[in-house]
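My main concern about presentation is that the manuscript never shows what a single data entry looks like. Each protein is reduced to its one-letter sequence and a matching series of backbone shape codes. For the editor and my fellow referees, an illustration may be useful. For illustration, here is how one protein appears when written out as sequence plus structure tokens:
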Amino acid sequence: MDTNSTQKIVSEEIISDFVRDYFPLGDIADFPKEIIVAMLEWQTMQEYKFDISIFENDRLSGAYNYLPGFQWSETLEGFEFWHDVIFYKEFEVFFDLYPDKKFEYTKPDIIK
């Protein structure tokens, strides 16, 4: 296994572990965790610093400029895909393409 593949696997594990305990806030408060994981994976794959606050403050960061979110047009899925998923919040577009990307997490118990 080459170094890039190893780094990608480690990065995916770190991101998944982080998101498992993360409660979405701000501009991504209503985003499924599966999509947040994908956004963070692209952020790190494009060599931006891992930083969820970028998306909490502006979910569109990097879409139309070189801010440290991620460049939608520089992904395998392409600009239109992310425009639908992130801008229009058409989350089903993501799950249509990635039906097996269901994130394993449990919702916190409601305290009465």
In short: Helices lie at 3-20, 33-45, 52-57, 79-87, 91-97. Confidence is low (pLDDT under 50) at residues 105-112.
